Amino acid sequence: MKQPKIKIPKTLLETIFDAIGITFYLLAIIYLAMVFGGLPDRVPGHFNGAGEVDRWGSKMELIILPLVGGGLWLLFTVLEKYPHVYNYINLREDNLEAQYRNGRLMLNVLKNEIVLFFSMITYSMIQIAQGEAEGLGRIFLPVFLGIILVSLFVFMFRMVRM
């Protein structure tokens, strides 16, 4: 079944989430730009599952996370405009708009969670490079994965219930 295209205006909640995500993203970039010249040549390049630095690299590598985070944010923003191409469970004519809104909100939430985490990691990498911290901490990875998985579960649950 070819899913119909319908125009659904962006909600206030999606706009608020975007504003929060972009604000933290821009703050991370501004902070990186402000301290970049004073950073040591070696900065954390990778972390193990316990949040400990397991590879050091050039400070130029600090630019990678904001680029990837910004790229993912843009990609998800484009995908939000096409909810009719997503895969749905239980899609019917009477719940079409609600399913599209739910799918689009799911992408919006995931996109902003990802950009927030990338911003946090960028900030943490700078702190570690400056000797202000030792690692991300043991709970960073479980919390990150937990938030993403709980978000997915909530939206999938909502989709099935519609």
UniProtKB/TrEMBL annotation:
Source domain of life: Bacteria
Classification of source organism: Bacteria, Bacillati, Bacillota, Bacilli, Bacillales
Pfam families associated with the record: DUF1648
Transmembrane segments: 12-34, 62-79, 114-133, 139-160
UniProt-listed InterPro entries: DUF1648
Protein name: DUF1648 domain-containing protein
Annotated DUF1648 domain residues: 25-68
Keywords: Membrane, Transmembrane, Transmembrane helix
